[in-house]
User: Which sequence fits this backbone?
């Protein structure tokens, strides 16, 4: 029972206390500041800036009063070889469509708002992107239970690397990436598995290069020693 109460207390501190203290701390020298953001959706990269009193990218997204964010000085780049680039003075971006966000300026959290957490290496699959880095879990000892306590609309992944093989987006790094919890699958711990592990690929190649009917090496790789027919180049 003490462990249960400890988890509930930690969860309360994580969810409720910051919402009480943030307005108090923002009012003390908490003038709005301009924060440059890069938002990745499944179709666009949206770059722009927003006026906010929040200090962290996760707070900007999680504490938005509306299900959208209004950015200024916006540039949108559409994925794909024929994608368009559009510039606009302002843009309303639907937060539900945002896969993850990166802030150009990283600001440390206010010490009073920090909840003790344990960093855990993880792979976050958020198609068509992948993000690897550290998620931050309550220190309750059991990884399964800690993942069960991981809540929030956008979650921070620190020391992050993100990329998309599907879209041909090269790997990039960021101190912190805020991923959309509702669009993400979190694998922790994770291990990339080689599908060819344990198979003798050289033997398989050699077997494919031999005509099974005659046992004679197949110089054309067609499974037969009979020369392939040609059409004279037409």
Assistant:
């Amino acid at each position: 029972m003490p462990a249960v109460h400890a988890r509930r207390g930690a969860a309360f501190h994580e969810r409720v206390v910051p919402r009480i203290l943030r307005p108090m701390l923002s009012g003390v020298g908490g003038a709005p500041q301009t924060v440059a953001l890069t938002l990745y959706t499944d179709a666009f990269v949206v770059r722009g800036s927003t006026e906010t009193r929040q200090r962290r990218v996760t707070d900007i997204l999680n504490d938005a009063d509306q299900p959208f964010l209004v950015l200024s000085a916006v540039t949108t780049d559409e994925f794909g070889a024929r994608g368009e680039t559009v510039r606009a003075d302002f843009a309303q971006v639907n937060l539900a469509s945002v896969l993850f966000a990166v802030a150009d300026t990283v600001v440390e959290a206010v010490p009073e708002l920090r909840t003790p957490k344990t960093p855990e290496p993880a792979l976050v699959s958020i198609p068509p992107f992948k993000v690897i880095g550290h998620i931050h879990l309550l220190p309750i000892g059991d990884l399964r239970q800690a993942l069960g306590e991981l809540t929030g609309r956008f979650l921070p992944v620190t020391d992050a690397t993100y990329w998309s093989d599907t879209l041909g987006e090269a790997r990039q790094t960021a101190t912190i990436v805020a991923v959309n919890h509702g669009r993400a699958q979190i694998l922790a711990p994770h291990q990339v598995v080689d599908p060819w592990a344990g198979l003798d690929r050289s033997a398989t190649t050699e077997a494919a290069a031999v005509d099974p009917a005659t046992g004679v090496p197949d110089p054309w790789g067609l499974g037969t020693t009979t020369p392939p027919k040609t059409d004279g180049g037409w």
